[in-house]
């Protein structure tokens, strides 16, 4: 029998698998036009040797090219006078003004760059992966253009993160794990404030994030060993910044599932700028279309929206002010009658974020950034499922409100050419209200002693308040030529449990020359149990002390012309992880309280370790490619034994190829592979009893077996044509899971299969569930 919550899950899965069409209208800031003239030349070092992969930029129009292996380059330009700039890693920047280009003529220039001493504030002390920035900052950077060209589902920013080494996650959710962590262990920041639960449709694992990728100017993922200005999270950091527009840009779009509009621009001679975006989702219409327009009220109606706004202004040459907002809301309605069964579900989620930032350059060496913020996160869940037998009734009410008031200030001071200081503080006040009721009369649990006995929380109502104080300082020093060290210390205090932590951190960077860098990182990273993180739905009414993680990292980066290589070893040990809850056989459970396979994992310690290798060749002409390989383990130690986490994938490979046969056409492929995730063996036996058949379950060790290995190929084909002088039109076809591979997700224990045995008893097995099948989409933008 398929229960009500299971039917709701299946119907929403059908909606996600439906064919979507995206239609957009974009007014870009620049256009490609015929270029009758050219600038040719070379970029050399002080000894006259050519520098490969140097960037040559035309400042007036933003046109860029890279030098070849001999340092030579060609720029096609219209007739006129230009200012050219050349730069290369570890070298000074040279600018040539007044370069004249005649119609149909070639002008020759030479750039001579010298080795440079990189300012301490520009040295990246912690290894990170960067995407969406307009200009590259490291060998592992992916530009906005490259991300747009890759196949992606739902134009979701968080899903783009999953292509990076060390990350993992299911096909349905936009949530992701970093090096085996739980998603709650990842810190997400946008323009200096932490984002709490930045997902749409949280009942379904957060299918999309609340962020419009068109507004994000940069995204850095620190997979481990992050600097001391980041805290209260034990795994990793996702740091995002919005764009600062310099010209007006408008985006309009419509699809079967979304309608959106966006605008950005500058005013007052570029002293001020704005950006705004609003998106609206209509997955309920997808379900109606999938059912041939027959809306009998039984289909789930998931709707979601988000809105982002930013207004910034430079008060003086040394001061700027900005005001930002991020709003989001979700609604899911589901009302179904199936024979004698009825299911009535209604959930609503809200997210309101508003903050004001002030930046000031107090002197040529001192910079300060101040942020005042207010955030409100609320949820209202109501589920009622009932059949003719009273003991099968399921009732749930979950109403929570979280308010956060925050103040943050970061200081940066260049003490000398070899000495750079950072320090700052953050103050937060939490106010959380709980109103929870679970009137489930009987818990339908698997009969195994390892499952939690008794009932879940029946009723909980309380208001909890607490403050969090954080202070940090870091000293970045150039110890000798090529070696830079950053030594940091962070202090955090939570008033609710009167708990405090000191976090020492050390990061070393050694420049071995020739574009090569060695990195070392060590540190302690704590994560507190915040007032709103009480899992009352699972019977939790007490808070736990802060988790402590110790990070060790050792890495190497090297640029070989246009090819970049990066390797890293890591180890993360959590000494006192707090318990977490998971469903044993299928990770996708919209109402986990009602799941019969819900288990409580109580590790004594947790250990994640592994090795990552990244190699790629970008800006190589018609073909760009990159590939990554990860070997990793993540295990929880429980009662003297070890048990892998659900996201443990021993081997993982991601590879991408982009081919541009001409300026108009682009073809991209991404291939994903990883070892099958851990699973648990289960089968049942039905024997005759006084009141009918008695079902006995037999379970193996938790996560002792594995699903089949996972593979998926995605593809995107696009064609761009010029429209007028300042417009472009792109048509694309995007296909997820191109070869329609059936990738195992788990077991659906609501769907059992019976087999008669020779002794008259019945053996029970369960259907395998799968991730999403082939998903084509196409559109215009």
SSE blueprint and pairings:
Elements: H1 4-17, E1 20-27, E2 37-44, E3 55-58, E4 63-66, E5 72-77, E6 80-87, E7 94-101, E8 106-112, E9 129-133, E10 141-143, H2 144-149, H3 157-161, E11 167-168, E12 177-178, E13 186-190, E14 193-194, E15 199-200, E16 208-209, E17 216-222, E18 236-242, E19 249-255, E20 258-267, E21 272-282, H4 283-290, E22 301-316, E23 319-338, E24 341-361, E25 366-386, E26 394-416, E27 419-438, E28 459-480, E29 483-494, E30 499-513, E31 516-527, E32 547-560, E33 563-574, E34 580-583, E35 598-601, E36 605-617, E37 623-638, E38 641-644, E39 651-659, E40 665-674, E41 678-679, E42 682-689, E43 692-699, E44 705-706, E45 710-723, E46 727-736, E47 744-756, E48 762-770, E49 775-780
Key structural traits:
single chain; 781 residues; mainly beta; 23-stranded mixed barrel; six-stranded mixed beta sheet; 4 helices
Major sheet: 23 strands, mixed, barrel
Q: What Rg, in angstroms, do the CA atoms define?
A: 28 Å
Distance between the termini: 45 Å
Number of strands: 49
Structural class from helices and strands? mainly beta
Beta strand %? over 45%
Specify the helix fraction band.
Answer: under 10%
- Poorly predicted segments: 16-35, 134-140
The outline comes out as globular
Mean pLDDT: 83
Determine the number of helices (DSSP H or I, runs of at least 4 residues): 4
């Amino acid at each position: 029998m398929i229960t009500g919550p299971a039917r709701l899950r299946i119907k929403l899965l059908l909606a996600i698998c439906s064919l979507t069409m995206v239609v957009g209208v974009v007014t870009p800031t620049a256009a490609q036009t015929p270029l009758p003239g050219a600038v040719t030349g070379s970029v050399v070092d002080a000894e006259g040797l050519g520098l490969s992969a140097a960037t040559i930029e035309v400042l007036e129009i933003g046109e860029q090219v890279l030098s070849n292996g001999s340092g030579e380059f060609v720029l096609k330009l219209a007739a006129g006078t230009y200012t050219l700039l050349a730069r290369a890693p570890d070298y000074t920047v040279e600018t040539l003004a007044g370069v004249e280009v005649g119609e149909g003529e070639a002008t020759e220039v030479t750039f001579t760059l010298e080795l440079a001493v990189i300012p301490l504030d520009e040295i990246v002390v912690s290894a990170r992966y960067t995407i969406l920035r307009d200009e590259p900052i490291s060998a592992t950077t992916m530009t906005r253009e490259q991300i747009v060209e890759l196949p992606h589902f739902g134009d979701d920013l968080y899903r783009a993160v999953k292509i990076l080494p060390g990350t993992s996650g299911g096909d349905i959710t936009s949530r992701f794990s970093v090096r085996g962590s739980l998603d709650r262990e990842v810190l997400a920041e946008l323009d200096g404030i932490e984002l709490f639960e930045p997902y749409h449709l949280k009942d379904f694992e957060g299918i999309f994030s609340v962020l419009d990728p068109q507004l994000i100017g940069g995204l850095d993922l620190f997979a481990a060993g992050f600097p001391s200005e980041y805290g209260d999270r034990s795994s990793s950091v996702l740091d995002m910044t919005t764009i600062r527009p310099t010209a007006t840009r408008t985006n309009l779009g419509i699809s079967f599932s979304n309608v959106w509009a966006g605008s950005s621009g500058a005013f007052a001679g570029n002293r001020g700028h704005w950006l705004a975006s609003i998106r609206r989702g209509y997955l309920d219409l997808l379900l109606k279309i999938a059912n041939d327009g027959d809306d009998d009220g039984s289909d789930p109606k998931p709707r979601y929206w988000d809105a982002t706004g930013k207004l910034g202004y430079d008060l003086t040459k040394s001061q700027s002010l900005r005001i930002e907002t991020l709003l989001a809301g979700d609604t899911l309605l589901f009302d179904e009658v199936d024979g004698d069964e009825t299911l009535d579900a209604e959930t609503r989620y809200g997210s309101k974020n508003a903050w004001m930032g002030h930046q000031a350059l107090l002197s040529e060496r001192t910079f300060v950034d101040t942020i005042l913020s207010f955030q409100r996160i609320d949820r209202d869940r109501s589920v009622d499922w009932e059949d003719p037998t009273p003991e099968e009734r399921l009732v749930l009410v979950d109403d929570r409100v979280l308010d956060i008031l925050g103040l943050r200030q970061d200081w940066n001071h260049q003490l000398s050419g070899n000495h750079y200081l950072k320090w700052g503080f953050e103050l937060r006040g939490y106010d959380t209200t709980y109103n929870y009721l679970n009137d489930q009369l009987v818990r339908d649990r698997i009969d195994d002693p390892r499952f939690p006995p008794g009932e879940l929380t029946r009723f909980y109502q309380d208001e909890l308040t607490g403050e969090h104080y954080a202070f940090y300082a870091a000293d970045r020093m150039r110890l000798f030529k090529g070696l830079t060290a950053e030594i940091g210390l962070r202090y955090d205090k939570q008033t609710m449990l009167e708990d405090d932590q000191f976090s020492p951190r050390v990061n070393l960077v050694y420049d071995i020359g020739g574009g090569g860098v060695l990195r070392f990182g060590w540190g302690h990273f704590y994560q507190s149990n915040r007032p709103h993180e009480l899992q009352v739905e699972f019977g939790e009414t007490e808070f736990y002390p802060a988790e402590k993680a110790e990070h060790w990292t050792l890495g190497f980066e090297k640029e070989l012309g246009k090819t970049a290589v990066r390797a890293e070893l890591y180890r993360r040990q959590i000494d006192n992880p707090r318990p977490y809850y998971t469903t044993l056989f299928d990770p996708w459970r919209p109402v986990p309280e009602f799941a019969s396979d819900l288990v409580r994992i109580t590790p004594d310690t947790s250990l994640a370790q592994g090795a990552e290798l990244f190699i790629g060749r970008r800006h190589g002409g018609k073909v760009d490619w990159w590939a990554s390989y990860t070997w990793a383990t993540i295990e929880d130690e429980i009662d003297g034994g070890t048990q892998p986490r659900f996201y443990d994938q021993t081997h993982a490979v991601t590879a991408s190829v982009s081919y541009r046969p001409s300026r108009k056409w682009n073809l991209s492929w991404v291939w994903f592979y990883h070892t099958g995730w851990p699973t648990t063996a289960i089968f049942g036996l039905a024997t005759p009893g006084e009141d009918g058949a008695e079902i006995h379950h037999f379970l193996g060790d938790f996560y002792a077996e594995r699903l089949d290995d996972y593979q998926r190929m995605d593809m995107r084909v696009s064609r761009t044509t010029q429209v007028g002088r300042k417009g472009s039109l792109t048509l694309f076809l995007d296909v997820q899971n191109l070869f329609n591979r059936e990738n195992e997700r788990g077991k659906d224990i609501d769907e059992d299969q019976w087999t008669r045995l020779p002794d008259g008893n019945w053996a029970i097995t369960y259907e395998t569930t799968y991730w999403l099948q082939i998903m084509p989409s196409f559109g215009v933008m």
